[in-house]
Amino acid sequence: MQNPYSAPQTGDDTSLINPPQMLGVLLYAVGLGSLIGMITSFINGWLGPAYFHYLMNWNDSIIIRAVIQGAIEGAIYGGINGFVLGGVVFFWCGGIANPKVLKRYVLMTAIAVSVIWLVGGILGILLLPMYAKNVLGPPTPFPQHLAHN
Predict the structure, then answer these.
(1) Crossing angle for the helix pair 62-87 and 19-47, nearest 10 degrees?
(2) Rounded to an integer, what distance in angstroms lies between the CA atom of residue 106 and that of residue 103?
(3) What is the pTM of this model?
(4) Could you report the average pLDDT of every consecutive run of 10 residues in the chain (149 residues)?
(5) Which residues pair with 15 in a beta bridge?
(6) 40-77 exposure pattern, b = at least 16 Cβ within 10 A, e = fewer
(7) How remote is the C-alpha of 92 from its chain's centroid?
């Protein structure tokens, strides 16, 4: 009889996942989240350094600082994703899982996050002229209410 919790996608029989395997999935999620954070922050720092200059008060090495911050934030969100996935596996499924399948779900989540980030960025770029014209009014050097004193 086939295990009802087996992973038909991989053909592997699924059994209780052991702690080192779950740790591997968690580290995979943290690493993947950190990588996505670094890539997206690099692109953001490259496209819009003024954001980091004015709002974060960074004057030099903006791209490097953005990448470091993106790595840290991405690792945090990847860890949260890994812990949520681990919690679901252990408490809902009774610890029955295939590490390959779990890593695939982490990867699918990372791809979804990246696509959503990309779509949001494209929409932001497309809507910026309308927003600037209708909400911000005529262009000024820098909005005074955002300036650091």
Answers:
(1) 150
(2) 5
(3) 0.70
(4) 50 66 88 93 86 80 92 93 81 76 86 90 78 63 55
(5) 97
(6) bbbbbbeeeeeebeeeeebeeebbebbbebbbebbbeb
(7) 25
Residues paired with residue 12 on neighbouring β-strands, in sequence order? 7
Ramachandran assignment for 79, one of left (phi > 0), alpha (psi -120 to 50 degrees), beta (any other): alpha
Q: Which residues pair with 96 in a beta bridge?
A: 16
Count of residues in the chain: 149
Question: What is the rounded distance in angstroms from the CA atom of residue 13 to the CA atom of residue 10?
Answer: 9
Place of tokens 């699924």: 14
**15 phi and psi angles, rounded to 5 deg:** -135, -175
